[in-house]
Amino acid sequence: MDYTEILVLLWIVILVVGIVVYIVTFPRKRRKLIEILESIAIKRGGKVSKPSFRLPSLKFNYKNRIVSLRFYLGSKYSPSQTIVSATTTFSQDLEMYIFKEGKMFDILKKVGVEKEVEIGSDYFDSRFVIKGNNQDMIRDLLDYRIQEKIIDAEHLYPIISLDNGEIEIKVNTILEDETSIEKLINLVTSMIDRLDELNR
């Protein structure tokens, strides 16, 4: 066999192994996630959706808002994700993005390419990047209670956004433990509470 034939054969083997691993692990992962979501659904009065060939999802009502929890399997070009989201009734036009401080952002910041919102907490500002369109409102939203919940989920590297009245928290992995998932849910519900306070 020449080099091209060996390369094609190698790719076929990798593809077949990948398919076998998926077939073996997917049902087990799906069952585990269903168990976790059903446990959360019992506590929060939610409903678990269990499509046959996709990962389960959960929806529950919180103060007349639908909170949604869903999972996405990754691909070659995108990571797997756990996403918790909710639509709010916040009346102000507020955009906000929060993610964990990283080396690339440090470099961009030093050369003045990127600007960020600072909320006046040395610990929080040193660990998270905050971007948005209204610094004063973002400072009001990120009170000490919200900051604590974000810090509590820091090890999950959450990407938090508020745009067009929708809160969304993404984690670039499929979380398979109830405690971590509850941290994201509690952060979303706390943000709903805080936006309601600011909307009065």
Architecture overview:
The chain is an alpha+beta fold and 200 residues long. 47% of the residues lie in helices and 22% in strands. The chain is built from 6 helices and 8 strands, in the order αβββββααβααββα. The chain has helices at residues 3-44, 103-110, 122-127, 135-141, 144-152, 178-199, and strands at 47-49, 57-62, 65-72, 81-87, 96-100, 128-132, 159-163, 166-171. An 8-stranded antiparallel sheet has the order 1-2-3-4-8-7-5-6. The longest helix has 42 residues, at 3-44. The protein is globular. 23% of the residues are buried. The mean pLDDT is 84.
Short description:
By secondary structure, this protein is of the alpha+beta class. It contains six helices and eight strands, in the order αβββββααβααββα.
Q: Within the largest sheet, what's the order of strands? A: 1-2-3-4-8-7-5-6
Taken from the alpha-carbon principal axes, the silhouette is globular
Structural class: alpha+beta
Sheet with the most strands, sense and barrel status = 8 strands, antiparallel
Order of helices and strands: HEEEEEHHEHHEEH
Total helical elements? 6
Q: Roughly how many Å apart are the termini?
A: 74 Å
Helix content: 40-55%
CA radius of gyration: 20 Å
Q: Tell me the total number of β-strands.
A: 8
In round numbers, the mean pLDDT is 84
Residue share in β-strands:
15-25%
Low-confidence stretches: none
